[in-house]
UniProtKB/TrEMBL annotation:
This is Uncharacterized protein. It comes from Nocardia transvalensis.
Length: 65
């Protein structure tokens, strides 16, 4: 598991993504995840609550300002 996403839908559950998946947090607050297992997922600001990076490569994550 490289990183997890927690959403407002079920704050006690997390969605696990693999080492090769990538994510971007857009300046607008939108979270975009590109995953081999789940495809591209777009999370609206306020819907996604937390991204836990763990051992995820810095090359596969980006935060825009």
């Amino acid at each position: 598991m490289a990183f997890t996403v927690q959403t407002a839908e079920d704050p006690t559950a997390v969605i696990e993504f693999s080492d090769n998946d990538r994510f971007t947090i857009r300046a607008s607050g939108v979270l975009e995840v590109e995953s081999r297992n789940y495809g591209t997922r777009i999370y609206a600001p306020g819907f996604w609550q937390l991204v836990n990076c763990g051992n995820h490569s810095e090359l596969l994550r980006k935060v825009e300002s």
